[in-house]
Amino acid sequence: MLYQSTRGGETVEAAQAIAQGIAADGGLFAPETLPAVTPGEMESFAAKGYIPAAECILRKYLTGYTDAELKSAVRSAYREDAFPDGPAVLKELTEDAAVLELWHGPTFAFKDVALQLLPHLLTLAGGKTSEQKKEIVILAATSGDTGKAALEGFAGVPGTKIIVFYPQAGVSVVQERQMTTQKGDNVAVLAVKGNFDDAQAGVKRIFNDRRLAGRLEENGLFFSSANSINWGRLAPQIVYYFYAYALAVKNGRVKAGEKVDFAVPTGNFGNILAGFYALGMGLPVGRFICASNANNVLADFINTGRYDRKRAFHKTISPSMDILVSSNLERLLYHLTGKDAPAVSGWMKLLARDGCYDIGAENKKTLQKYFSGYWVDDGATQKTIAETFARHKYLMDTHTAVAWKACADHRRQTGGAGYTIVLSTASPFKFALPVLKALNPDAPDMDAFAAIEGLSELSGLKIPEAMRELGHLPVLHDKAVAVEQMTGAVRDVLAI
Ligand SMILES: *Cc1c(COP(=O)(O)O)cnc(C)c1O
After folding, report:
1. Residue 105 Cβ < 6 Å to ligand 1
2. In what side-by-side order are the strands of the sheet with 479-481?
3. Which of 170, 341, 444, 446 is a plausible cystine mate for 450, CB 3.0–4.6 Å?
4. What is the pTM of this model?
């Protein structure tokens, strides 16, 4: 299997795509073809469990990795002490809707599912490419959850260093504390005086800085990415779409081959895109409900075909989706247009120059065949949390609630739909204060750790130990840099 740059520049093997993270022309690596999953394989996933499903799917994409390598990588990533309940837990809330909990990993967000595996894929890739013998430097921009999940995945991994940038005042208290207390000799965490888009743009600039690349080369280092621009982040996410479907069939909710809808709380468009790849591989999907918060650029895009980032940036109670430039949309456009790299390059140039582009009527029609876009404000998000708790005794976090509400809105608008699986991306404890206030609007303002206690009392849910100890761990990283200082900060960390 080969991977092509969405802007037409390069075609590389899987290991090279993962090692590089991003193509030299600024494009993202996309698979040349989408391998099929047979109905027999699909059926086997529910019976055999998550790990064999992951091996089966990854084998199709990561040609160049041996079966033994993949097996060992998957088994180390999804070991029981990292995911005591497994990487994906399907909970049925109603007759026609279930949530797929993807946050039972070490950092309580769905990003663990990919980021526990990525270090294995990346260190193996190092031995298969021209980057052999060099040390990998992982750069990540985070809206909160990627940072910690990547730190947790890469801390202490030999032959790697990791540098995480997060928007100062743009992440939740728990998210920030998770990152600033990170232990490990090979980790650096820096706050950026800007929002997530600034941090992400800064990291992309560092990747494309030729002079810096030269310095790295001289010092036996090379950059890679832990963001969902890296194919090694996306491929593992395809697995749980198939797995969830297999469980829905096993539970008798849908017949094998019958279509289901997926509702996905979306920011950088990585999670939902993994679903689109699953569809391309044969998963019976009716529709992807793309759910945004007040940063509604994707909902508008899906409804109009025009992407326009020129709008106010909102800080919301679902901060992991406070994003106006969704990187992975580029991959979707590449596939939707039948791999029209010149068109994709053109739109990305317009986005950089004018802040907007229009994909035209034909492409919009194709887009709307698969995707419906909705957005949900903070008030409706909190109301949804309160209602689902009252009705189903189920407590969801702010991001999941955005998707649950988008699913309800979609049903109202279309007069009903098939079985829907709503992806649940974080533990409610991770965003404890807004969740607590949703259940008890009279709750006073309090610090995040008091809110976690309060939420546990109110809901009867047990606080995970790693969350409880967070309030007492020493802060090890407290540096903040301006956007223009990001390159300098990387040089300082690496001493180059
Ligand atoms: C990252 C994240 C999202 C958005 O996922 P994308 O792949 O960026 O679209 C949603 N919810 C939570 C909790 C996240 O951490």
Report:
1. no
2. 221-225, 135-141, 160-167, 187-192, 479-481
3. 446
4. 0.95
